[in-house]
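Entry 14. Ran structure prediction on the chain below.
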Amino acid sequence: MIDFTLTKKQQELKDGLNQLGRYVIRPMSLEMDKKKDVPETFLRNFMKLSKSFQNEDVNEFTDAEAAPAKPRDPSKPSQTNRTAAIGAEELAWADAAMLLCMPGPGLGGPPVRATGTPEQKKRFLGMFAGMADGELKWGAYGLTEPGAGSDVAGIRASCRRDGDHWILNGRKCYITNGARAIWTVIFATVDPSLGRAGHRAFVVEKGTPGFEVGKIEEKLGLRANETAELVLEDCRVPDANLLGGEEAYASRAGGFMTAMKTFDNTRPLVGAMAVGIGRAAYEYARDFVRENYVLSRPIPRYSAIAERLAKTSRRLEAARSLVYRATYLADMNIPNAKEASMAKAAAGQAAIAACIEAIEICGAHGSIQGEHALLEKWFRDIKVYDIFEGTGNIQRVVISKRILTDLKAF
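Output, structure tokens:
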């Protein structure tokens, strides 16, 4: 049975990040958006501050030998994904772009953890050890292409074996932290006609000959976060960097399933971030109404405003519940593809609606960038949460396929 009550550590994390967001991150938010960067000093201080809450993935593989997997105690289920969702919501409430700039494996972490060999996990995740006092490092995830984003089976980046190396060619676009990542998980195909059966995943390290950064994107929202194009031209990647080794692709859908498993972990977190932005806009509108209207007066317009706020709150609460369910299943190692898509689809739409409602409730004030610049920023930031990690339409397809399982041609 799912228990939505936060543990003591989770509540401390939530409260601590809320205070940090309110008094440190929010005051920096507009300046970071304008300069399109997050100060390195802040990132370094945040890494030190959050050390006690860091995921164990890095620490697990910094010893001389990769630690053997420990069987989970059924009486003490994992809380890793749930805790990550709680933190993601609070940080996105403060500034979503800053959250995406956090050093670490990032979106590249889940495929390495899910598919990598013990040696690969130790090697690639171990690179992020010691960042609290040393160099800050990022990982990245390279799946999207100019002609294949949500349609994962349609990727065209190619790979072919050449002795003990693989030759990669193609372009990847809209890659979060792509230019500064020390390595990127790149998906390519041995033959496009094979569809998902031809997919392979590689960890391509920065500085590999033939692996270059293209343009840095100019975006509507999340401007403080780097989004890059990556170009592969006869890029030679050692066989040791084939994620999971050849054994991982004995199944005809090996590489494709690596991508899908990544989404099952990341989509609920994207949903949590959307809830955070939507909650920020909702609370802004709620406080504006409290300061400018006497809702107890029997005026129809005031009743309509109260109802709009109530509806927004309900939708955000429902979206958060879906996020928690998806993360609970992930923590219990129960397949959660449908629930992950439900969480992302619902959260993105609920948060977009919350931002629109907030601007409309605030009226002319809501559209004035100078006076209500944060509200304007959240409105710009939120749209992509219905697009990246699979569009809202793709989420609905995933959900439908798992509900209508007997329709083979669907």
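Residues 55-69 have pLDDT under 50 and may be disordered. Will compare against last week's run tomorrow.
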